[in-house]
Amino acid sequence: MSDAPIFAIDVDLVRGAFKRTVRFESNQRVIALVGRSGAGKTSLLHAIAGLVRPARGYIAIGGRCLFDASTRVDEPAHHRRIGYVFQDARLFPHLDVRGNLRYGAPRGRGDERFVFDHIVELLGIGDLLTRNIDGLSGGEAQRVAIGRALLSQPELLLLDEPLSMLDPERKAELLPWLQRLRDEVALPMVWVSHSQEDTARLADAVQRLE
Ligand SMILES: Nc1ncnc2c1ncn2[C@@H]1O[C@H](COP(=O)(O)OP(=O)(O)OP(=O)(O)O)[C@@H](O)[C@H]1O
Fold it and tell me: Is residue 40 within 8 Å of 62, Cβ to Cβ?
């Protein structure tokens, strides 16, 4: 077993005129990232995912170095084994639910950590498999998006405000599934949230960007 913290991050993020340093270490598995609008939450997720390059510093998660400016480590995004769930699900409209879940799932090795039938059961989406995307509720679409992310066999899950576009009823419906995800999928997760209440329910620790 490695003694490395689950999250070890110290980066300078630069996006146009925006510049900030984010530094934290944590041994908690599920982190809520909170802070005012424009504080840099999405920018940090993008840096972890390899979609933007920090101007300085390092990102190591689960003892795995994803980026280190001093040693010129910069794992390409597609090698980082990260599942990314967006606010608006971003499912493929030309595929049905099954097609979306199958998209990008490595085939045929037989030793995958996340298996199709288990993920479908975990997220309660078995009845949706042949449905078109445009007929799904916001909460159903998010569950499918999470399933698609897990079936890409990630080692880390990033969720950018998965509840924020839902009305209160749909949100109440989705929350227990997200709690189940947190409890039954033993992956590190970073959860961007605006809501103190969601944060308290879903995260082991809160990281605030001022
Ligand atoms: N591609 C870009 N070019 C220039 N500036 C950018 C770019 N992307 C983000 N920014 C700026 O970087 C800052 C941080 O944005 P970011 O989206 O990371 O914040 P956030 O905390 O996620 O905000 P929100 O809660 O509103 O989503 C903002 O001032 C934003 O305008």
Answer: no
Asked whether the predicted pLDDT for residue 209 surpasses 70, the reply is yes
Pick from 12, 18, 159, 198 the residue to mutate for probing ligand 1's pocket: most ligand atoms within 8 Å of its CB: 18
If phi > 0 it is left, if psi is from -120 to 50 it is alpha, else beta; for residue 16 that is left
144: left (phi over 0), alpha (psi -120 to 50) or beta: alpha
pTM: 0.92
Residue extents of the structural domains in the chain: 7-208
Q: Is 35 in the pocket of ligand 1 (CB under 6 A)?
A: yes
CATH number of 7-208: 3.40.50.300
Alpha-helix residue ranges (DSSP H) falling in 50-195: 97-102, 116-123, 138-151, 168-184
Point out which residues pair with 33 in neighbouring strands.
192, 207
Q: What is the ipTM of this complex?
A: 0.92
